[in-house]
Amino acid sequence: MKLINKIFRYELSNVLRSKWIIFYTLFFLVVSYSLFAFTGNNSKAILSLMNIVIIIIPLVSIIFGTMYLYNSREFVEMMLCQPIDRKSLFFGIYSGTAVPLSLSFVSGVIIPFLLRGNVQNQFGLLMLLLITGVLLTFIFTSVSFLVSLKNNDKVKGLGFSILIWLLMSIIYDSIILLVIYIFQDYPVENSVIVLSLINPVDLGRIFFLLKFDISALMGYTGAVFQKFFGNTAGIIVSFISLILWIILPQFFAFRNFKRKDF
C-alpha cells in the first residue's frame, strides 16, 4: 500500500502539471460560472451541466488515459526493472491518472457554484452531479487503460478509444431506437433495461435524472428504467452498475498488465 501511495503521489504531481489538466479545469470553471451567472434557475444550470458532463468527461478521460499510458511506457519499463510488483505499479498509475481528472472536474464545477449558486437549496443536487462525473471519469480511465494495454500501436489504440466514445455517447441511443423500431410488436422493456446497463453513459444520465423524476429528459431507456425499478431502487441499481463498470475494465486491464511483456 505504501508503494501504491508513492507511485500515486508521483503520478498525481506529474499529471496536475499537465497543460491539458489546467485547460480541463478552466473549461469547467468558465462553463459552470457562465451557467450559474446567466441562468436564473440553478436547477436548470445543473441540468445543463449534466448534458455537458456526459459528453465531455468520457471523451477527455478515455483519450487522456489512453495517451498518458502510451507516453508512460518508458517510465513503466524503468519501474519494472526495480523490485516493484506490477499490482502496485498499475494501481498507482491508474489512481494517479483518474484522481487528477476527477479533481479538475470537481473544482471546476464547485467553485463557481459556491460563488454564484444557492448553496443550501441545490447542494444535494450538485453532489449528485459531481458523483456522476467522478464515476464516469474512473470508468473511462479504466476503459482507456484496457484499450492501451490491448493495443501496442498508439494510433490504433487512440482510434479504438474514440470509437468507443462515439459508440457509447452518440451512436448507442440510435441503435436502441432501431432495435425498438424493428421489434415494436414485441415486449422489449426487459431488453431495453439490459441494453441500458451495458452503456455507462446512459447509466450516468439515468442515475442523475432519476432524482428529478422527469422521464421526458431520460429518453426511452431512462423511462423504462424508472418504470421497472422506481426512483430509489433505480438510483441504487444504476449506482451499483456504474461501480461494476469501474471494476470490470480495471480487472481486465490489470490482467493484461500482469501478462504484458514490456
**Could you give a short account of the major beta sheet?**
none
Q: How many extended strands?
A: 0
Strand content: under 5%
Q: Report the oligomer.
A: single chain
What's the overall average pLDDT, rounded? 83
Low-confidence stretches: none
Question: What is the structural class?
Answer: mainly alpha
3D shape = globular
| Total count of domains | 1
Radius of gyration: 19 Å
Write down the secondary-structure element order. HHHHHHHHHHH
Alpha carbon gap, first and last residue: 23 Å
Helix percent band: over 70%
- Output the number of helix runs: 11
Short description:
By secondary structure, this protein is an all-alpha fold.
Characteristics of this structure?
262 residues, mainly alpha, 85% helix, globular
Characterization of this structure:
With 262 residues, the chain is mostly helical. The protein has one domain. 85% of the residues lie in helices and 0% in strands. The chain has eleven helices and no strands. The longest helix has 32 residues. The two termini are 23 Å apart.
